[in-house]
Specification:
Elements lengths: L6 E6 L3 H11 L5 E7 L2 H11 L3 E4 L8 H11 L4 E6 L4 H9 L4 E4 L4 H12 L4 E2 L4 H7 L1
Parallel strand pairs: 1-2, 1-3, 3-4, 4-5, 5-6
Helix pairs in contact: 2-3
Length: 142
């Protein structure tokens, strides 16, 4: 597979073990390459500016710049990165802001890696993907 078929990914989560686990799982996918990790929103913004990844896998609860604040900055500045939220929160109040900020995917942490991989591939193709248990929320909010 040549480099133009690879999807470049930055992972932003404030828990090192979570970032390492996500990286390990995603790097088993032949078309994914993790190009950076960030422990907070400011680090993620810096990485996005420097490495211009295709996809940002983001947790919403991070120090120094929350996930929703980061998503808003990305949208305001017109960065071409597409965000996929990986969260333990499936409630409507968590979803609304991310949808308004232009998120391409929302996967619950209780889902398997296959859902995250599908969300990343859909986002890369310009389509949206949400965990199946969120379909009622996204159809009324989108």
């Amino acid at each position: 597979m040549n480099d133009e078929n690879l999807t470049t990914i930055v992972i932003a989560d404030d828990h090192a073990i979570v970032r390492q686990g996500i990286r390990s799982l995603l790097e088993h996918e032949p078309d994914f390459i993790v190009v950076g990790e960030a422990a907070d929103g400011m680090e993620a913004l810096d990485l996005i500016e420097r490495v211009a990844p295709h996809i940002l896998v983001i947790d919403m609860s991070m120090p120094n710049l929350s996930g929703i604040e980061l998503l808003r900055i990305i949208k305001e500045r017109g960065f071409p990165v597409r965000a996929v939220v990986l969260s333990m929160h499936g409630e409507h109040q968590y979803m609304t802001g991310t949808l308004e900020a232009g998120v391409y995917g929302y996967v619950l942490k209780e889902e398997g890696v296959d859902h995250l991989a599908k969300a990343i591939r859909e986002a890369r193709s310009g389509r949206r993907y949400f965990s199946h248990s969120l379909s009622g929320i996204t159809s009324t909010s989108a």
